[in-house]
Design brief:
Number of strands: 12
Structural class: alpha+beta
Radius of gyration: 30 Å
Number of helices: 10
Order of helices and strands: EEHHEHEHEEHHEHEHEEEHEH
Oligomer: single chain
Helix content: 40-55%
């Protein structure tokens, strides 16, 4: 015990803390950090077995478009025949046919969609997946097989599906402007950049995996294809319009424009204008060819395509469509990301508990001294 000459108060000298007591928490902290790193790395590895484009092909279900059929009273025999013909032709398409009788009580969102098109019933309205009633439609027209089939299917879409089913990494669709010089420049840029990326990108594929992870017979090599749609190609007019208006805001960019398609016919944005450059193309390719860490946090927008993705793929194409009055569906998380987040939360909790115990032990030790 000593006396402070300045104040006169008695001050109790603290005995030094033994070295072992000082270093014990440090060892525990190191163990906790080691456990944290091991846990995070192990869970991160769960979702890193496949590149994004292959994971999307094998595991991301296709989101259906909705063909809303507005009519008044029962359909006539001719109208029912047209409805049945469209339904039969759409057997392999990601499309839901939904008839709504305007003479009955229907949802206000549906009625708003019908009024927005100012057509006479029966009227067919094609809706992009997960869009609100005020969002623009993909197409509208009469209830007619001849009018709708070119909207649902076309040669370029069949070619896209066959390439993706054969294991193509990404199919790049070039929407031409009709100006030969600009179209040649865009095509040359695309071909040159993709050729370089095919050689420079490092594609990691699992050397061995269970049967439900990698599609049998698919190519293990990186390869890109380019398909061009001319501005005056009437067979692709509906598909071209969909691609140009596939952005969330519905605004169509000025062609030439490039749309990368991967997975089961999913488009990842549109490159046009100043964004159509070497860096923009490379950024998309690097993301889609990089190891997937998103699980089922899907990106991009499904295209309306007639294709049977199921025979050799092991995951069913099931998706519940959003009702017109509902907000667009939220992205879906798989088990792996949730477990990964739980691991992070557990590590944080352990660190907090550890710091609380150390602080409490320090106060108790000070009180005893």
């Amino acid at each position: 015990m000593t006396v402070s000459p300045a104040s006169g108060y008695t001050v109790k000298a603290l005995s030094p803390v033994p070295d072992a007591a000082m270093h014990r928490p440090v060892h525990l902290r190191r163990l906790i950090l080691a456990f944290a790193y091991a846990t995070l790395w192990s869970f991160a590895a769960i979702a890193c077995d496949l590149p994004v484009f292959r994971y999307a092909l094998e595991r991301w279900p296709v989101t259906p478009y909705r063909l809303l059929i507005f009519h008044r009273g029962p359909l006539t025999s001719d109208q029912q025949a047209q409805f049945d013909a469209i339904k039969s032709a759409a057997a392999d398409a990601n499309l839901l046919l939904e008839p709504f009788d305007l003479s009955t009580e229907i949802d206000v969102g549906l009625r708003a969609i019908f009024k927005a098109h100012q057509g006479d019933a029966p009227l067919a309205v094609l809706r992009f997946p997960g869009t609100a009633p005020q969002a623009p439609s993909a197409w509208s027209g009469p209830l007619s097989q001849d009018a709708f089939l070119p909207v649902m299917d076309s040669p370029v879409r069949r070619r896209i599906a066959s390439l993706l089913l054969a294991g193509e990494s990404i199919v790049w669709v070039l929407l031409e402007s009709g100006e030969p010089a600009r179209d040649r420049a865009a095509a040359g840029l695309l071909q040159q950049t993709l050729g370089r990326l095919e050689l420079s990108l490092n594609l990691r594929m699992p050397t061995s995996a269970p049967a439900d992870v990698t599609g049998a017979g698919l190519s293990q090599k990186l390869h890109f294809s380019v398909l061009r749609i001319a501005s005056d190609d009437q067979r692709e007019a509906a598909f071209r319009s969909m691609l140009l208006h596939i952005q969330p805001d519905g605004q169509a960019p000025d062609p030439p424009a490039v749309v990368p398609v991967f997975g089961r016919g999913r488009a990842l944005g549109t490159l046009a204008g100043k964004d159509l450059n070497d860096q923009g193309i490379a950024s998309i390719a690097e993301f889609l060819c990089g190891n997937c860490t998103c699980g089922e946090l899907t990106v991009g927008q499904d295209l309306l395509i007639c294709a049977n993705w199921g025979p050799f793929l092991n995951y069913a194409q099931t998706e519940t469509p959003a009702t017109p009055e509902a907000d667009p569906p939220q992205r879906r998380w798989s088990t792996a990301p949730w477990v990964f987040l739980a691991a992070i939360a557990a590590v944080v909790a352990i660190v907090i508990i550890f710091r609380t115990v150390v602080a409490w032990s320090g106060r108790r030790q000070s009180e005893r001294l």
